[in-house]
Amino acid sequence: MRHGTQHADVVPAELEEALRGGPFHVALRAAIAARGLPLQRVQHHLSRYGVRVGVTSLSYWQQGARRPQRPESLRAVRALEEILQLPDESLIRLLATADKHPGPDRPPGRSYRSLVEASGVLERLLAELGSGLDGGLHTIGHHEHVRIGARRELLAHESHHIVRAHRDGVDRYMAVHHGDLGCAPERITVHATENCRTGRVRWHHDTGILVAEFLFDTRLRNGDTFLFRYGFEDGTAGASCEYLRGFGFAGGQYALQVRFDEEALPVRCHRFTQHSAAAPRSGRQELALSGRHRSVHLVEPRVRSGIVGIGWEWE
């Protein structure tokens, strides 16, 4: 039924089933559809409750790409129960159930939509910092070390970067961190650990994108090489299920190592590639977890344009 003719006591069977069994995003999507409200109207109703939530966030919530976790977001969920004429605590209960049982509700891989959205946000953040995707540097070698914590969260990642300037005057590098589902980029700590110092930092909450500027304190000439190290401490999101890196340009070596906490070991790990965000994943190869070191890795002697990463499954 259209909004305006649906009585509060009449609950469509699909919505009733979703509210009973979840998951949260399916129930939210069914409730919005049952009331016939576009997301802009939902956002307007929320503002009347004194709650500010973007249309993008609402879209992510009903797709399952993100889940409300912050206090303001949980206020929004309680308001949604009234706006969408749902039983008290019905949506909050589904969120609580998902938090208590993270195993069966494994985080999905990054969707095409989320990757495209992140790409657009990244370009805007770089433009704010007066930089492009290239930045005047070619990567010769990039070695990343990712740590997964005891709560299965992306705890931190560190990078050892080797670059060569392809024009005169380059004196900085823009590093990108793309957090997991539910991360809070404003709480992520940025570290400049060797041959650089931290400059400006920008982030976008809805996509979990953070861009950090690392200053070399020297101006490279065309052809000069430079080595530096930096890292990000995250730990603000829920369970992680993959780490990937996108490359806009071919060339250079890339190595990725993922190390797991001894209290949270995955049951399976694999590497994968994608030609683009829209392309299906391919190149799947199982990776054996080393016993004592609790880590897996991949090495690309010469990267190609596209995406490469490591995924894992929890019991």
From TrEMBL:
Protein name from the UniProt record: XRE family transcriptional regulator
Species whose genome carries this gene: Streptomyces caeni
